[in-house]
Design goal:
The complex is a heterodimer of chains A (75) and B (168).
Chain A (H helix, E strand, L loop, with lengths): L2 H13 L22 H15 L12 H9 L2
Helix pairs in contact in A: 1-2
Chain B lengths: L1 E9 H10 L1 H7 L2 H8 L4 H18 L6 H4 L3 E4 L7 E4 L1 H9 L2 E11 L2 E10 L11 H6 L7 E4 L5 E4 L1 H5 L2
Antiparallel strand pairs in B: 1-5, 2-3, 4-5, 6-7
Helix pairs in contact in B: 1-4, 3-4
Amino acid sequence: MEKTEQLKEVISRYWQLSDGNLDWAMELNSRNLSNFSSLRMLRFLASVEERFQISIADVEAIKSFQDLRKLVENS
Amino acid sequence: MLQVGCDVCRIEAFESMLKEEPAALERIFNPEEHQYALSQGRPAEHLAGVFAAKEALGKAVREPSLLGKYYREVTVSHPQGGAPVLQLSGRLADVFSKQGIFVTDLSISHDGDYAVAAVLIEKKQLQCDQCSISLSALEERGIADRLLQVVAKDGKVSYRCPVCFRGW
């Protein structure tokens, strides 16, 4: 499975967003994501790290799903 | 000036993290905290309380997102028979010290599905303990070294401006 498809799977698990309502440029905050919390965000990022064997050292640099997608695709 | 921060956390989230998401736990807790929680009857309850304490600290300093990078530099320990204690280390300790932020008190409680924590911090106007020049006055004058921390043998911390520190 392509990395983007795998990432979509993780996004769907944590944020209940699928192809129809996933906006890659969306800012990751409580206005845009239902059930947003710092803990959920941490769990989500840790899950992405584990799935793609990457390290997200600067959490603040991840402003959107697009930022994450770039990181994953370049890994 | 005193500032308080509090946070509430669902214990259930940590039950699933213990089972399925060890990597997420590693982002938040340092080994000492993790080990302590595992030694308790209900580890998830302890982890939720410690996480709430870390979040409460971010709220007390009015920078909730600051802690995202530094969770592991905040350690909640449990001295035997005493109340929990919050200690800072690494870069976060440095940042807070330079801003005159001191953790004054911490309280953690649990009930049913939730853990709650409150943190009290004191924000001091730092000044040289010899000549009384304030940190903001030094910054306005562009003095690069600003206030230097002096730790006495008894562990008591005091501050010196570069002039007093060097005895000019």
